[in-house]
Amino acid sequence: MAGSPLPQAGEKPRDIKLNNRRIVLGLLARKDRATLGELAAESALSRNTVKKCVDFFLQKGLVADAGKGSSTSEGGKKPDMFALDRRWGSIASFYCCGTELSGGLYDLTRDCLCEARENLPAYTPEAVVAGCRRLLDRMLAESPERPGPLRWVTCSIHGIVDIHTGTVLSNRQDAWNGRVPLGDMLREALGAPVSCCNPVRTMLLCEADADPAVADNSAIVYTNGPGAMAAIIRRGIVVQGKRCVLGELA
Fold first, then answer.
1. What is the distance between the alpha carbons of residues 29 and 83, in angstroms, rounded to a whole number?
2. What's the maximum distance between 2 C-alpha atoms anywhere in the chain?
3. Which residues contact 18 (CB under 8 A, 6 or more apart)?
4. Burial of 131: CB neighbours in 10 Å, binned 0-12, 13-18, 19+
């Protein structure tokens, strides 16, 4: 497929493997179900590579068998079909802008199960963590479907955020001075792995997912807030510096 994020010179085998898995999982997220042949054709990966990716997801419980496809015009064997397994669990996502906190609960297919929001009594790390706990409990209780176990948490918060450690390095409020280990605080309070980032990355990912005009080889830069914050989509992958600041992209 034109524009697919193909391996680049100098990439390590582990990076190539992770990139291949990301491509296949992204395709499955856009489809009700698909065969290995369909995934290979749309990803520009070999059928063998796609099979290794799908086998890995089957082992981890992210993908399930989804019956048989249609046989070929020559009457060949019906191919196996695969789909994301909704029983895998749920993902909680939070966005904090000052004292305004909102959250959403999603299944693996990215269908929204429940949403909630509240105004925090104060804009401090402790208040944000406590608010996320309250919203999560409310969404788990109010979800019309059984959400399954909480598998992952994302939190988008204004400021300079180390996306690798979940540490908020700077924020405009006095209560956030210094290095605040927000990721660790949320992980302890919610009992699941946590990814923290600046809204620039969140907006970029949403734009790439929702806008059909954004091709895999597009490059997009966003800036917002009191300083220049940026991220780029290059070959289908979000590229940004450790702290999401504009200068790191140079």
1. 8
2. 70
3. none
4. buried
User: How far apart (Å, rounded) are the C-alpha atoms in residues 27 and 46?
Assistant: 15
- 66 contacts 81 by C-beta, under 8 angstroms: yes
Name the percent of the chain in helix, strand, coil, to the closest 5.
Answer: 35, 25, 40
Phi-psi region of 130 (alpha: psi -120 to 50; beta: other; left: phi over 0): alpha
Kindly tell me the burial class for residue 166, based on how many C-beta atoms sit within 10 Å of its own C-beta (0-12, 13-18, 19 or more): buried
Q: Which is it for strands 150-157 and 194-197: parallel, antiparallel or unpaired?
A: parallel
Q: For 121, how many CA atoms within 13 A lie in the half-sphere containing its CB?
A: 6
For 178-213, the pLDDT digits (tens) are: 789 999 999 999 999 999 987 777 767 666 666 666
Tokens 């788990």 locate to 140
State the residue for tokens 């600041």: 245
* Per-residue pLDDT tens digits for 64-94: 998 887 766 555 688 889 998 888 889 999 9
